[in-house]
Amino acid sequence: LFNMKCGVKGSLTQEVIDEEMSNLRDLNKRDWYTEAFQITKKIEWSYERQPAPRKRPSKNTRDVATLYWHIYFDKQIAEKVTQGLFERIGKIQEKLHKKESLDENEQSLFEEIFEKAESTDEDTPVSYIINNKKVDEKLRYKGYRVLVSNEISDARKAWCAYQERWKVEDTFKTLKSRLGCSRNRVSDNESLNGKIFVQFLATSIAMVVRARLKKYSEECRKSDEPALIYDSDGTVLGTL
User: Which of 24, 83, 151, 229 could disulfide-link 37, Cβ–Cβ 3.0 to 4.6 Å?
Assistant: First the structure.
């Protein structure tokens, strides 16, 4: 299961999103479980079985695999990113008006979407306008996610599997960042053992919570109980 980058210009990922962009606004495509619009495309992928240097590919050296491209659109994420960009643009406009210097990030955004306004009066101070087309291009693929798998054909199952895998990554982040386990220097061995023991307890509890949430979700499908929206264990515990 691969998480594809949506920001690479001219990529197959963007081509697939472009093909389904209008369909991903259809409320009939919104999954109540993941709370995201989703579509699955089945693509026959032709690839070189054993690439050999200085040899041209042929039918005898190529294989075909079935890949499932799961495309998701989260409107809330797209709106959040859009609002954030508008706030950054507003801050730049404010600084330009007050003739204040821009920081590195603001300067980069300024060069990307601002351009000089045309003026025939040489005495008029230089003014800048926003290139709306460039703003639209910057926001075009926000809120989208594309997961590709050669085994998982169901979009919801692929989404949940990716969320579960991300939990593993988040655990490593906890060890490295929050508990400082990326640094070998500690006050003493007892301190290191304490950190690892606390993380062991926290991870164990998290596993128990997620196992019970999964069991509850499966039981809901077999009964009339209200279904649990799939979410992070931290969010669920916070809500409770």
Answer: 24
